[in-house]
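Q: Sequence in, structure out?
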Amino acid sequence: MGLDPGMDVLQESGWEEQRREARKIEGDLDVTLSSYAKLGARFSQGAGHVEGSSPTLGSSRSWKSMEIEIQSLLEKLLDINDSLSRCAASAAPTTSVTQKLARHRDILHEFTQEFKRIKGNINSMSEHAELLTSVRDDINEYKGSGTSSPRMQMLRERAAIHGSISHIDDVIGQAQATRAALGSQRAMFGDLQGKVKQLGDKFPVVRGLIGAIRRKKSTDTIILSAVIAACTLFLIIYWLSK
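A: Exactly. Output:
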């Protein structure tokens, strides 16, 4: 029984050799990224330190050299994945070849994203450490000379600005809460007025009774006013006749 012609083409194009090289680089990347992740963990725990401009992992390799090595391995793995894609394209596509190629691409993507994440964390922690060192130097300089440096003045102004912004945010939040409460009360009164109107529409007898009470009150007011006017007029006439 002969071999699959498609597999023969893959063998001739170096498919297996390229896959072995890809697996080797993937293993190297796994080990190097693991060491790089330990460096990031030490920085996040405050165990990292700065020597000149680059922190170290307690060995002769700096974190910058590790970044360069990882970037180089990622580029090599990308080139090999491209070669594997060309090998697969030169033969009849099979499910096995497609799955293996997709797996290599997924591994490359995972390594790339992990490298970016760890690199971002280390850069952030390094900048934070440099800022703390700079502030500490400025404080020591201030204590020694009795005058604040321009950086210290800028930091104090920045803190004051942040405090003002925080206060403004609080005031705006209170105003928005008050506005929301007033809107809620307005809606409640509107609903109450609507319910009273609906009640009057549903019960004409109640509405008629309310109207009769209002008319009776108006009539009583008129009669009382007439009596008061008559009494006043009578008193005036009596006073004039004396």
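Residues 22 and 77 are 6 Å apart (CA to CA).
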